[in-house]
Amino acid sequence: MRCPVCGCCQDKVLDTRPIDEERSIRRRRECLNCQHRFTSYETVERGSITVCKRDNSREAFDRDKLMGGIKKACLKRPVTDDQMNDLVDSIESEFKTSMRVEVSTLEIGERVMAKLREIDDVAYIRFASVYREFPDADAFMDELNSLKQLKEEKAKKALKNK
Ligand SMILES: [Zn+2]
Q: What is the Å distance from ligand 1's center to 18 Cα?
């Protein structure tokens, strides 16, 4: 570990002890170059993500719960378990690689919708209707229309590319 004083990378460990109820390890080190003594801490990488909900309460990211919502939306639709697993995996890893420790249900919902839209229209609309809590039929129709528009644009692009 690099010495904070001289920047030398060689040191010897003088003392190692668990702290914080064994959740972390504290090491006393001495720089071999300038003899400066410093401390380093080692902790287990936190893989858990906290989800901030609409009512501002927080809970640990629950993969099964998210999967449950997606499965409901995909009920009797031609979406395979693998596709659903991939979807949840990709969302989970996006958050993990971005080193985020907290995400909102809003963000999770938006990402799921963006991905479901690519997979299956009906599943997407079902998920969106639960998630967006459409206040009335108009809001629901707006969503349907924007989906339709998106599809038409895609179809046009596909035609152009032919
Ligand atoms: Zn040093």
A: 25
Distance CA 151, CA 145 (A): 10
The rounded Å distance from CA 10 to ligand 1 centre is: 8
- Report the separation in Å between the CA atom of 19 and the middle of ligand 1, taken as the mean of its atom positions: 25
Helix axes 63-73, 121-132, angle to 10 degrees: 120
Residue 86 has a pLDDT of 92
Q: Which residues pair with 64 in a beta bridge?
A: none
- What residues pair up with 10 in beta bridges, in sequence order? none
Q: pLDDT digits over 19-72, tens only?
A: 877 778 899 999 999 999 999 988 766 567 889 888 889 988 888 999 999 999
How far, in Å, from the CA of 37 to the mean position of ligand 1?
Answer: 8
